[in-house]
């Protein structure tokens, strides 16, 4: 069994059946795997292997840090419910994270707003696979 399979099995062993279903509906195995490779390989090696050669010159050093934070949150199962939303990525960081995985934002709406933070619900469509996912991003 591959290292990625073992990591997914371990994570899924810690989650509720309902949340596992949410993750699977959102192309989670694909983005989990891409997150592992990005963190393991680093941006230069990842770029060489990537079909679109991402991350490209449009990624600032701050974007790369946000992408790394996002990848670390993905491998912990965060980002796909309002209660387990992405944090500390900002809007641009979230967009760059999913651009790295070849997704394009197609819809965004606020699902919660108070004096401390806003939680956005964002739908992304994959550029080639015709799949989509919905994630949640908490912005301070």
Brief synopsis:
The chain is α+β, with helices and mostly antiparallel strands and 140 residues long. It has helices spanning 3-13, 17-25, 28-49, 61-74, 90-100, and strands at residues 86-87, 103-113, 118-126, 132-139.
Structural descriptors:
5 helices, 4-stranded mixed beta sheet, 140 residues, single chain, alpha+beta, 21% strand
Descriptive report:
The protein is α+β, with helices and mostly antiparallel strands and 140 residues long. It is 48% helix and 21% strand. It is built from five helices and four strands. A four-stranded mixed beta sheet has the order 1-4-3-2. Helix 3 packs antiparallel against helix 4 (61-74) and helix 4 (61-74) packs across helix 5. The longest helix has 22 residues, at 28-49. The chain starts with a helix and ends with a strand. The relative contact order is 0.15.
């Amino acid at each position: 069994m591959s290292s990625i399979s073992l990591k997914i099995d371990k994570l899924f062993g810690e989650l509720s059946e309902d949340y596992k279903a949410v993750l699977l509906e959102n192309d989670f195995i694909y983005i989990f795997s891409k997150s592992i490779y990005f963190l393991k390989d680093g941006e230069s090696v990842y770029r060489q292997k990537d079909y679109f050669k991402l991350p490209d010159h449009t990624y600032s050093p701050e974007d790369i840090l946000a992408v790394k934070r996002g990848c670390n949150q993905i491998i912990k199962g965060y980002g796909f419910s309002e209660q387990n939303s992405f944090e500390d990525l900002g809007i641009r960081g979230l967009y760059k994270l999913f651009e790295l995985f070849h997704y394009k934002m197609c819809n965004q709406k606020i699902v919660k707003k108070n004096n401390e933070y806003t939680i956005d619900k964002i739908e992304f469509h994959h550029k080639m696979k015709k799949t989509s996912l919905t994630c949640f991003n908490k912005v301070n």
